[in-house]
Amino acid sequence: MDAARRSPELGSIDTEGKPAPLPSGESPAENPALPLLEAPTLVLNRSWIPIHTLPARLAIGLVARGSARIIDPRNYEAHDLDSWDAISRARESWVECIRSERLSLAPLEVIVLTGYSGVGDQTVTFSRLNLYRRDRYTCQYCGARPGSKDLTVDHILPRSRGGALSWENCVLACVSCNKRKGSRTPAEARMTLLCEPSTPHWRTVRRFPARPTYKSWEKFLSKAYWEAELSE
Ligand SMILES: [Zn+2]
């Protein structure tokens, strides 16, 4: 199996110097702790702005080194591993925990970095994959979601007429909308775009799963949250 999945981070959280690795040789199916260790944790920067997600095992490592604190999504209190262990033990009867010899940790839904206040690399590469992500695998003319194989990249102003390969001039279109539009502009084809295409915001494209893994993430990722923060 992949050695990286044996969680060196979880092993390193035992401060008495006795690493507590998971039993070797297990597969994720045999060891229910593995999926929990691989489950994504939402990472906030010091200003509580979401910047990306990390597998829980790496998030635990950051908390162990003091680079991050665990946020209790119920009350936004910040915890280190010991205090999160205490909270987790109180919840243990109804929450599946990540266990080592010393610690029993409820899933880390959200962590906040203690030192970093940047937002990471904000440039979004203009790539087919990112275009699919921006348009959410949806035909931008009819709203169909036929699956990636049946979506095409449509040049709003056709390439044959000088249309650029750019965020502003390209959208996803299903095969039938693409055929219908042909080498015309949407206006000429009497077709309407669902929304004005633009360079995607990095937060919406690169770093977060399409659906929040935990309900608690919605508070941090929702548009309303962002608008509230920015209007301070
Ligand atoms: Zn369509």
Overview of the molecule:
With 232 residues, the chain is of the alpha+beta class. The chain folds into two domains: 3-120, no CATH class; 123-200, DNA Binding (I), subunit A. It is 27% helix and 15% strand. The protein is built from nine helices and nine strands. A five-stranded mixed sheet has the order 2-1-7-3-4. Strands 5-6 form a two-stranded antiparallel ribbon. The chain has a two-stranded antiparallel sheet with strand order 8-9. A hairpin with a 4-residue loop joins strand 5 and strand 6 (104-105). The protein is elongated. Zinc ion is lined by residues 139, 141-142, 144, 173-174, 176-177.
Summarize, please.
By secondary structure, the chain is of the alpha+beta class.
Bound molecules: zinc ion
- What is the CA-CA span between the terminal residues? 49 Å
Q: Give the radius of gyration.
A: 22 Å
- Given as residue ranges, the uncertain stretches (5+ residues, pLDDT < 50) are 1-31, 223-232
| Tally of helical segments | 9
Mean pLDDT: 78
What characterizes the major β-sheet?
Answer: 5 strands, mixed
Total number of strands: 9
> Structural class of the helix and strand makeup?
alpha+beta
Q: Which tags fit this structure?
A:
232 residues, alpha+beta, DNA Binding (I), subunit A, five-stranded mixed β-sheet, two-stranded antiparallel sheet, 9 helices, 15% strand, elongated, disordered N terminus, disordered C terminus
